[in-house]
Amino acid sequence: MKNLKLKSARAALDLSQQDLAERVGVSRQTINAIEKGDYNPTIKLCRDICKVLGKTLDELFWEE
Amino acid sequence: MRKHAVALLGLIFSLVLIAAGVFILSRGNSGINWKSNWKHELSIKNGVFENDSSTGNFIVDRSGTYALNIGWNLQGKKNADSGFMTGCKITNDAGEVIYSVGAHTADVRTTLELDKGNYNLLFAYFVEEGAAVKDGTCTMEYHLNVTEQRILGTVGIGAVLAILLGSCLFLIALIAIFGGSKNGEARYDERQKIEQGRGYRYAFYSILITVGVALMLDTTGIATGGMTALFYTASICIGLLVYVTYGYWHDCYIALNEKRSFTVTLLFLSGVLNLIIGISGLLSEGILNGAGKMNTPVINLLVGATCALLAVIGLVRFAIEKKSDGRDED
Questions:
Q1: Residues B267, B36: Cα–Cα separation, whole Å
Q2: What is the pLDDT of residue B157?
Q3: Which of A17-31, A40-54, B79-93, B251-265 has the weakest average pLDDT?
Q4: pTM of the prediction?
């Protein structure tokens, strides 16, 4: 399932996938896979992404 | 620090292995080598040789296989223009002829199984029919080389393996001590590690299947003439192709702190080098050797083609990546 919350949070900060990947310390394809719903990140990676985007886990990764 | 200490121990151990291997080989292969050179003056009167033979000899200390190189040259003239032929006969202590040859040829090479003992060479000269041989004297120079051919036994093979293993360990130890990326160890993110696992699994299954096919071809006799080595190498190459291609396509082959161009360049150079060795080897030796077995340059060609193909796949993937750089994929 696509993670549109992550995509919009990233876009709100005007960050490309590459920018977010570099800040989190992963590859661009990993961010892309998370946004497309092709990959479920570990809790550690979720927290790292949340820190960079300034959001909580619920705001980015909780399924409605 | 601990890692360097282990690497240093490995370096010392590898040097010991190499030294031991070289020592064993040098002791085991110190074969007999007999060399001699001499001259003989031939005198011809009224078209007949006055002293029509020359002798030489050599001693063999132990039975075995020996490579003989016998040569004769007429001073100041070509053998073929001399008007006479030279015959050479080798006899043992019992007077039995073990080898004979007659020709203008200046250089004879042969391999003989010789027992321990003395061997004599007798050179004789025959005027060719219809040839005009001038009266006078001429000088014939002779050379004789007898070299023992030692075949590697179990100990010899062990020594060669020790040298090979020692060399590999030496390289690994050197890389461990002096090598490594300036950016530290290769870093992969969690998704890349998972994808690598999948890639390894697919490559493992491919190798299993292809080795199975190779075994079947080998046991049924369909693969003959040294082709078994080719099929097993092909299995490894297929496994490599599967893993690296999967890695490129799922972005898990290149580490986060590695340059893409380095890997592609390395693969390209390996491919080109192996292709050059393979093509030049095939041009000089052909596909099959005299015994009908496949020559090893064919394997170089296979490995070179694999590396070159992987370099091309890498370039294609990177070209696609570059196009999408700066644009998010949807």
A1: 52
A2: 66
A3: B79-93
A4: 0.58
C-alpha B303/C-alpha B312 separation (Å) is 14
Q: Do B256 and A18 touch (CB under 8 A)?
A: no
Chain B residues in contact with A28 (beta carbon < 8 A)? 251
Interacting residues of B242 by C-beta distance below 8 A, sequence separation 6+:
B199, B202, B203, B206
Tokens describing residue B92: 């043992």
Contacts of B190 in chain A (CB under 8 A): 26, 30, 41-42, 44-45
> What does pLDDT average to in each consecutive run of 10 residues of chain B (330 residues)?
74 80 62 76 74 77 82 69 75 88 73 87 76 74 79 64 76 67 76 96 96 87 74 91 94 87 85 87 70 73 92 90 65
Q: Is the pLDDT of residue A2 over 80?
A: yes
Answer whether B114's CB lies under 8 Å from B64's CB. yes
Q: How many CB atoms lie within 10 A of CB B162?
A: 21
Do the Cβ atoms of A25 and B189 come within 8 Å? yes
Distance (Å) of CA B156 to CA A59, B13, B161, B177, B296 = 70, 20, 9, 31, 22
CB A9 within 8 A of CB A60: yes
User: In Å, how far is A46's CA from the nearest CA of chain B?
Assistant: 12
Q: Tell whether B97 is within 8 A of chain A (Cβ).
A: no
Instruction: Return the residue matching tokens 């074969």.
Output: B31
Rounded Cα distance between B298 and B254, Å, is 30
On whether the CB atoms of residues B101 and B88 are closer than 8 A, the answer is yes
Closest CA to A45 of B118, B188, B184, B61: B188
Q: Please give the backbone phi and psi of residue B38, each rounded to the nearest 5 degrees, phi first.
A: -155, 170
Q: Are B145 and B33 in contact (CB under 8 A)?
A: yes
Interface contact A45-B189, CB threshold 8 A: yes
Determine the Cα–Cα distance for residues B150 and B63; give it in Å rounded to an integer. 11
Helix (H/G/I), strand (E/B), else coil: B233: helix
d(CA B203, CA A15): 37
Q: How far is CA A41 from CA A35, A46, B60, B94, B106, in A?
A: 10, 6, 78, 89, 80
